[in-house]
UniProtKB/TrEMBL annotation:
Cell location: Membrane
Protein name: NnrU domain-containing protein
Transmembrane segments: none
This protein's record includes keyword Transmembrane: yes
Positions of the NnrU domain: 158-377
Keyword annotations: Membrane, Transmembrane, Transmembrane helix
A GO CC term attached to the entry: membrane
Record InterPro entries: NnrU_dom
Length: 386
């Protein structure tokens, strides 16, 4: 009896408000034509104080959050099943996005302090990298490259070994991310990951620049009609694919807590693994331009590493995001435009707006800057004598 009285009192106190009206569509499922029964006032009261754990939210094209409910699972089964080849709803409607809106940059949400920290961290990292690795008088970069060079007289073999060492540490640490973050935290593990990968990447790039013309010349196409323009355009396009990490620079620098994102918009609609595609384009362009055995060796090593990275990335995303990743995987493709052409990916009418954003503009500016800075990068690499 006491329990019934308490229920009656709670219902009376928390269900009645002289200015409150019920919205008949408030509890309507976005994936069903049926309307849910309104919660009882007691349920509303309890949920106010005791919030049950919810699955991670997903983002719609307009950044609304959708919970992975039973209705959503049923929606996935029907909409992305064999009925229409995994595409939209069969009548040309757009697909609800379960991943994140990539390259979103809202100026009003940015904190000046975060970007001040980012600048300070970036400067500190570059200073430490120079002292501990790049500077031949204090760093370990030259001894490392010299030690690897002693393993073979072939520049091609040394190039492949350097790429292999980088790949082992880079992909190995990425594979251990879940365990590592549980042991030392997300930010500390990001520092460990970057602190290991960055010096090895610098060594590989510097060695390639310094020895790119040391191999056996296989062809010479630099003076062929249109080759320069083709190579320049290919490199420009490759950078638009290569650097989706600019979507979350503050996380890259561990200013914000790093997350494993499930991107789904923008360039992800074209290919699920833009870094792989960008690396393939970059390698093919440089190999065509240089035309020797060192360039071929570098391309084989880099493409091989990124092919493994695509497989490993899918595996890790499946572990982290589960059913949501399976949905994204069904309606995206590794081969560019394949999912769009076979109807699994339904592009929004205003798809172009997903590229008119600051991160893509930043990539464009940096790409043009890198092209004009080529002579400076070559001169700096030559002075290292790696």
């Amino acid at each position: 009896m006491a329990s019934s009285s308490s229920t009656l009192v709670l219902s009376t106190l928390f269900s009645y408000h002289p200015h409150q009206t019920l919205n008949p569509n408030k509890n309507k499922s976005p994936f069903s034509s049926h309307t849910k029964r309104p919660f009882s006032s007691l349920t509303l009261k309890v949920s106010t104080f005791v919030k049950p754990k919810q699955p991670p939210p997903f983002h719609s094209p307009h950044n609304h959050q959708i919970r992975l409910s039973r209705q959503f699972r049923a929606y996935i089964t029907v909409r992305d099943g064999a009925d229409d080849g995994g595409g939209g709803d069969g009548d040309g409607n757009e697909q609800p996005v379960v991943g994140e809106d990539s390259a979103e940059f809202i100026l009003s949400k940015q904190k000046i302090s975060s970007w001040v920290y980012f600048t300070a961290i970036l400067g500190s990292v570059l200073f430490i990298l120079n002292v501990a690795w790049i500077d031949n008088s204090t760093g370990f970069g030259k001894p490392f490259v010299d030690a690897v060079s002693e393993l073979s007289d072939s520049k091609e073999v040394v190039m492949l070994i350097l790429i292999l060492i980088f790949a082992i540490f880079h992909s190995g640490l990425a594979s251990l991310r879940d365990t590592g973050e549980q042991l030392i935290g997300e930010r500390a593990y990001r520092v460990l990951f970057a602190g290991t990968s960055l010096p090895l990447a610098v060594s590989t790039v510097v060695y390639f620049i310094n020895h790119r013309y040391d191999g056996v010349q296989l062809w010479e196409l630099k003076n062929a009609f249109g080759i320069h323009e083709f190579v320049w355009l290919s490199n420009f396009i490759s950078f638009l694919f290569l650097y989706p990490s600019t979507f979350n620079l503050l996380e890259v620098a561990a200013v914000d807590k790093p997350k494993m994102h499930l991107w789904e918009t923008g360039i992800m609609r074209i290919t699920r693994h833009p870094q792989l595609v960008g690396q393939v384009i970059w390698c093919l362009a440089h190999t065509i331009w240089i035309g020797n055995s060192v360039a071929v060796a570098a391309s084989v090593g880099l493409i091989g590493h990124h092919l493994f990275g695509a497989w490993n990335g899918d595996r890790r995303l499946a572990v982290r995001h589960g059913e949501a990743f399976e949905v994204v995987k069904k309606r995206t493709s590794i081969i560019p435009f394949a999912a769009i052409l076979d109807g699994r990916q339904k592009l929004p009418k205003d798809y172009y707006k997903e590229f008119i954003r600051l991160p893509y503009l930043s990539i464009t500016v940096l790409t043009l800057g890198a092209y004009f800075a080529h002579p400076l990068m070559q001169a700096a690499s030559f002075r290292l004598h790696w």
